[in-house]
UniProtKB/TrEMBL annotation:
Function: Catalyzes the cleavage of 5-oxoproline to form L-glutamate coupled to the hydrolysis of ATP to ADP and inorganic phosphate.
Protein name from the UniProt record: 5-oxoprolinase subunit A
Species for this entry: Plantactinospora sonchi
Domain of life: Bacteria
Quaternary organization: Forms a complex composed of PxpA, PxpB and PxpC.
InterPro entries, A to Z: Glyco_hydro/deAcase_b/a-brl, LamB/YcsF/PxpA-like
Length: 253
């Protein structure tokens, strides 16, 4: 049976004169782009440039929503009231969708970023806030997240489409959560190792955790972070390895 998989990357995360990652190069490789919406990274000019190139290359645009935390790149834990968080997510989603539509496209899905992504794995209230914002804007938009997370559970309960994501370049704990950045094995940077991991996840639905155990992920989409060292070469090798293994690459949305 043939396997179809999405390959996504977090893009548009620079700000003003500060560039982060090579968005245009990655857009030649991935099938979906998680575009920063101005809260953890990105600005209107960057958002428009990435959306325009994504539309030109037929790459699916996703809203990469996060906490309002430019200084911490959205990776700092923050306590935000659920109602306010829902408003913040709605604001980011609507802004990116407006820009994408101006370039002939539209937002096709939503994926939280950084600390918000990790928080919604276990925090029911924060997960519910993200789901409420997406449902209010467009209940037809899928939400991309970690398998078994509160976010995906609540998305399904609300009647939204929940899509499972796995990470090409991040280490996993035995419980299926991501290893904390800075901890041993949290970031995988060797291109050959990353490519082998991705082929295994695509063909067997499993990945080896930092303690050597096997974790079930069954991804619909694989993420290569745009700010990982050597991200373009990583993504290129992942794409090539998946295609060599007979995996068809296509956007899930």
């Amino acid at each position: 049976m043939s396997i179809t998989l999405d390959l996504n990357s977090d893009l548009g995360e620079g700000f003003g004169v500060w560039q982060l990652g090579d968005d245009l190069a990655l857009l030649k490789i991935v099938t979906s782009a998680n575009v920063a919406c101005g809260f953890h990274g990105g600005d209107p000019t960057i958002m428009r440039r990435v959306c325009a190139e994504a539309v030109r290359r037929d790459v699916s645009v996703g809203a990469h929503v996060g906490y309002r935390d430019l200084a911490g790149f959205g990776r700092r834990a923050m306590d935000i009231e659920p109602d306010r968080l829902a408003d913040d997510v709605l604001y980011q989603l609507a802004a990116l969708d407006g820009i994408a539509r101006a370039e002939g496209g539209r937002v096709r899905y939503v994926k939280p970023h950084g600390a918000l992504y990790n928080r919604t794995v276990t925090d029911q209230a924060q997960a519910a806030a993200v789901v409420a914002a997406v449902a209010a804007y467009d209940p037809g938009l899928p939400i991309l997240g970690l398998p078994g997370s509160q976010l995906l559970r609540q998305a399904e309960e609300a009647g939204l489409t929940a899509e499972r994501e796995a990470f090409a370049d991040r280490g996993y704990r035995p419980d299926g959560s991501l290893a904390k950045r800075g901890s041993p094995g949290a970031l995988v940077t060797d291109p050959a190792e990353v490519a082998e991991r991705c082929v295994r996840m695509a063909t067997t639905g499993r990945v080896t955790a930092v303690d050597g155990s096997s974790v079930t992920v069954n991804p619909r989409s694989l993420c290569v972070h745009g700010d990982t060292p050597g991200a373009v070469e990583l993504a290129r090798q992942v794409r090539g390895a998946l295609q060599d293994a007979g995996v068809r690459l296509a956007a899930f949305s």
